[in-house]
Structure formats: structure tokens, C-alpha cells
User: Which sequence fits this backbone?
């Protein structure tokens, strides 16, 4: 048992120091996980998958049964400012329109973040996602 | 006192070894990523250790200050491979030797200096000077070597050795553009960034950001990632062609980096991924199919991943990157390399760059593994 614990602990340390997969293309491309605090309709936790096709940023929030399609998204490279709008539905089927504004931090890092704010007709709050 | 079982010690040892492998595969840099060329410095002291390790050798020096205190400085040199090629060894200096080092200071203010000259106090001799001198050009061009069927050889003749090195350009710049940069692709003036290639706004901004950080985030250096794309032909330690005609493919091997290889398929296959292979798995070197067009080898490559920088200097690319490369051995000692870059997700139009490489005959590729880099 002690062997297992030692090995497990050292494995964890080892994994922490391992090189991570980079994403050196478009800075928004990839999977992101974070929160949009205070969202009583879709919950605090947030998953996003974003892509860049050369002309437009596309993506989905919370991919799955209750996914939310991103309708429009823009990235201004001057300051790396992100703006996107998305349309979801609550459990009763009512439309919820989201507007999110944020900024990419730590651009050079694989685990860069976007922080900002979100708002909808049902609330507003701060927003933070980290690239996986 | 708690004892640890032999098995636990073994587990710890093996995992520790794995950690070491991870650690040693990291950390290298362009010179300006670590040192500031606007801050000249001089260090005089006594050698305490010569550390002959990739990516750069170091001399450690005890320096006495005005108050009589002693501090230890790290003097960074070129790679052991370059130093050795210039006639130096780890025995060139010994602990106890007095030296004077002139160079540039570390950006972070630590006691490190990049050496531009190292002079032995007792003799006045300059040591560890590296000269990157290509082989002398023959008085008259030698004919292009060919196989019996008349196809051009890109590699060495049977029984001989050789490789291509000393690229006439060490960073990718669109043909016709004149942009000042160092051998690592660091622009002299970041304001020139837009002249390098026709980038989309996001790509230009990302390129500028990388330049402003002096290329310190280059995954080829910090994580030992393969130098895919045209970068393979702008490496400091050259590239070799191994022509396997029986299997209808050409291997290109690099003399530095992590010694990965790229395969140019000559068997007429199309740009179709191999099931269970690269069909849904983009690669560092992409998928390359090639054919001869007269005396020029034309290579079409797609299927790149986005986990690396495809140029020295950090021009961005996406998984839409497609390269058309043309290799022409214009004489025995000269290889002309032309590449057309097509990446509509990063650039506003296709663009082209051209340079030449020199034949280094009678030698095998230098052995330099970025895996050996110190952490």
C-alpha cells in the first residue's frame, strides 16, 4: 500500500511538471472551461468549444443536450478583446440571449484565460474561462 | 524511523527518472529571449566550473566585488557542438583560470552574462570564439549528381556522406521583402512585422506579441517540439536527405532538435490520410507527397497540427496550412529551396519564400539532441 501511495504521489508531481500540449494557432481555438458567475438559468459552470475557420469564430457553449449556440463572435487583436453573443433556452423553452465581453490574458500560455462580463435578460455577472 | 520498502524506493526512483526526462526536455531560447543586447557587461573572475551541456555551455566564475565579497556568475556560451566545431573543448578552461568576459546582461537582472568574448587573463588569448563558416565554394560548379536513370540525387553518393546546411536565410520572409532580423528570426524592429508576410490581423498581432517577448515562448526550444514545415530547412545543424528508392520515399533528417524525421512519399499516393495513422491526426511535419518535375522535386504537404511554430521567428499558422516546396539541386554544392505558403486562415493570400543551402560533404549530420537540454 505504501508503495502505491509513494508511486501515486510522485506520479502526480511528475504529471505537474510534464510539458503540456501547446496551441500555437488562432488564440481562441480549442476547449475552454470556466464560470459565468451568478447565472441562475444555465448554472455557474461553463464549457466552451471554439474554432476559427479563417473568416469567423464559431463555437458552442456547454456542448450536450442543453447546448447554447454562439451566434456571433469577434476578436479584436488590438488588446485581444473578445465579444460574442449566444442564444440559449431555459428549462421552460424560453429564449435567453447572452452577450459576453472579455479579454484574453496570458496570450503566450497554453492555458490562457479570457475574463470579462456576461449579461442576459435574466441576469449578469463576471465571466472567466481557461483554455484546456 | 519509518523505513521505505525496496519496491517503494524502486517506484520512486523510476518515477524520479521520468521526471528528470521531462525536466531536461525543456528550456532553450534565442539569445535575446534571455539577454538584453542594449546592456553590455564585463565580468572578471576565476573559473570555478565549465559546464559542457546542451543547449549552451556555461562557465561559472567567482567575481570579487569592491568590498572584497565574492559572487558567482554564470557565463553562457554557444552550444557545445558549435564550440567543438570551432576547436574548443571543456578542457579549454580549468577551474582556477582567470578570465575576462565581455557580453550582454540577463534581462531579469540575475548574475548571468552572454559571452561575446572570453579572454584568458594570464595569456591574453581569446577562447570559445565560434565561427560559422560554410565550406569553401569550389572554383567551378561541380555537376549535379544523378542516379543511373538520370534522376537527381538530393543525398550523398554511394559510400559518401554529406548533408545540407548554412541556409542563406534563417527565417521565413516573403520574397522581395527586406526586413532586418537576427539568425533566430528576431526582428530588429517589431514595427517591420507586417513586411514579413501578408498576415491576417490576428496572425500579425500574435506574431508581434511573440516578437515582443523575444521568442521566449518558442515550443521548439522550450518543449523540444519538431521544427515542422520550412523551418526544417533553416536549422542550425543542417538537414539530410536519405533516398529510399525501393520503398519510393525520401526521408529528411534534421541535425538538431529532437532528430525526428519527415517522409516524402514518392509512390504516387494522393493527399489521403492513412486509416489508423494520419487520417484524423494532424502532424508536425504534415503529410507530404512528392514527385519530380524535371530536375526539381515538388512536394505538396498538408495535415499540419498547430502545436509548433513553423518558422524561426514565430510566424503563426493554422491547420489549414498547405505547403508547396520545390527542391532544385542547381549544382553539386547548392540546393535551391522554394516554398509557397497557403494558409487562408492565417494569411490574406498565398506567398513565397526562397533560399539556398550549402552541401557539407564528407560529414554525417551533427549529433545534437534537444532532449539533452538542461532544464
Assistant:
Amino acid at each position: 500500500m505504501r508503495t502505491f501511495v509513494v508511486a501515486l504521489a510522485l506520479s502526480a508531481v511528475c504529471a505537474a511538471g510534464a510539458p503540456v500540449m501547446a496551441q500555437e494557432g488562432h488564440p481562441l481555438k480549442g476547449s475552454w472551461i470556466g464560470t459565468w458567475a451568478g447565472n441562475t438559468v444555465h448554472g455557474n459552470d461553463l464549457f466552451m468549444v471554439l474554432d476559427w475557420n479563417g473568416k469567423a469564430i464559431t463555437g458552442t457553449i456547454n456542448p450536450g443536450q442543453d447546448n447554447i449556440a454562439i451566434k456571433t463572435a469577434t476578436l479584436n487583436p488590438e488588446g485581444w478583446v473578445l465579444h460574442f453573443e449566444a442564444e440559449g433556452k431555459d428549462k421552460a423553452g424560453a429564449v435567453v440571449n447572452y452577450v459576453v465581453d472579455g479579454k484574453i490574458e496570458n496570450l503566450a500560455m497554453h492555458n490562457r484565460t479570457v475574463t470579462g462580463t456576461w449579461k442576459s435578460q435574466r441576469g449578469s455577472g463576471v465571466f472567466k474561462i481557461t483554455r484546456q | 524511523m519509518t523505513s521505505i520498502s525496496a519496491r517503494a524506493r524502486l517506484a520512486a526512483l523510476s518515477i524520479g527518472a521520468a521526471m528528470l526526462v521531462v525536466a531536461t526536455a525543456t528550456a532553450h531560447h534565442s539569445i535575446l529571449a534571455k539577454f538584453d543586447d542594449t546592456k553590455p557587461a564585463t565580468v572578471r573572475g576565476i573559473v570555478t566550473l565549465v559546464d559542457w551541456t546542451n543547449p549552451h555551455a556555461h562557465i561559472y566564475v567567482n567575481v570579487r566585488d569592491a568590498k572584497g565579497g565574492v559572487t558567482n556568475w554564470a557565463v553562457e556560451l554557444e552550444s557545445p557542438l558549435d564550440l567543438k566545431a570551432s576547436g574548443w573543448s571543456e578542457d579549454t578552461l580549468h577551474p582556477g583560470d582567470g578570465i575576462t568576459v565581455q557580453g550582454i546582461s540577463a534581462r531579469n537582472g540575475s548574475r548571468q552574462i552572454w559571452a561575446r568574448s572570453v579572454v584568458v587573463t594570464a595569456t591574453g588569448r581569446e577562447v570559445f570564439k565560434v565561427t560559422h563558416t560554410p565550406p569553401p565554394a569550389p572554383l567551378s560548379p561541380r555537376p549535379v549528381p544523378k542516379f543511373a536513370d538520370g534522376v537527381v540525387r538530393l543525398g550523398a553518393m554511394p559510400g559518401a556522406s554529406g548533408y545540407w546546411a548554412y541556409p542563406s536565410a534563417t527565417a521565413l520572409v516573403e520574397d522581395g521583402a527586406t526586413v532586418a532580423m537576427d539568425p533566430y528570426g528576431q526582428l530588429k524592429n517589431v514595427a517591420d512585422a507586417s513586411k514579413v508576410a501578408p498576415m491576417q490581423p490576428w496572425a500579425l498581432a500574435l506574431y508581434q506579441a511573440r516578437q515582443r517577448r523575444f521568442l521566449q515562448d518558442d515550443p521548439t526550444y522550450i518543449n523540444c517540439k519538431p521544427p515542422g514545415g520550412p523551418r526544417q530547412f533553416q536549422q542550425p545543424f543542417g538537414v539530410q536527405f536519405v533516398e529510399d528508392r525501393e520503398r519510393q520515399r525520401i526521408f529528411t533528417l534534421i541535425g538538431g532538435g529532437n532528430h525526428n524525421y519527415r517522409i516524402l512519399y514518392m509512390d504516387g499516393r494522393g493527399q489521403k490520410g492513412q486509416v489508423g495513422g494520419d487520417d484524423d491526426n494532424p502532424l508536425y511535419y504534415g503529410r507530404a507527397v512528392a514527385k519530380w518535375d524535371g530536375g526539381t522535386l515538388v512536394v505538396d504537404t498538408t495535415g499540419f497540427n498547430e502545436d509548433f511554430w513553423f518558422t524561426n521567428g514565430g510566424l503563426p499558422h493554422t491547420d489549414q496550412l498547405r505547403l508547396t516546396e520545390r527542391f532544385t539541386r542547381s549544382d553539386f554544392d547548392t540546393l535551391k529551396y522554394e516554398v509557397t505558403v497557403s494558409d487562408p486562415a492565417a494569411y490574406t493570400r498565398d506567398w513565397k519564400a526562397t533560399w539556398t543551402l550549402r552541401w557539407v560533404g564528407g560529414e554525417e549530420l551533427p549529433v545534437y539532441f534537444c532532449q539533452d537540454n538542461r532544464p
Summary: Helices of chain A lie at 2-17. Residues 2-17 of chain A form the longest helix (16 residues). The interface with chain B takes residues 2-3, 6-7, 10-11, 13-14, 17-19, 21-27, 29, 52-54, 75, 77-78, 80, 107-108 of chain A (CB under 8 Å). Chain A has one helix and eight strands.
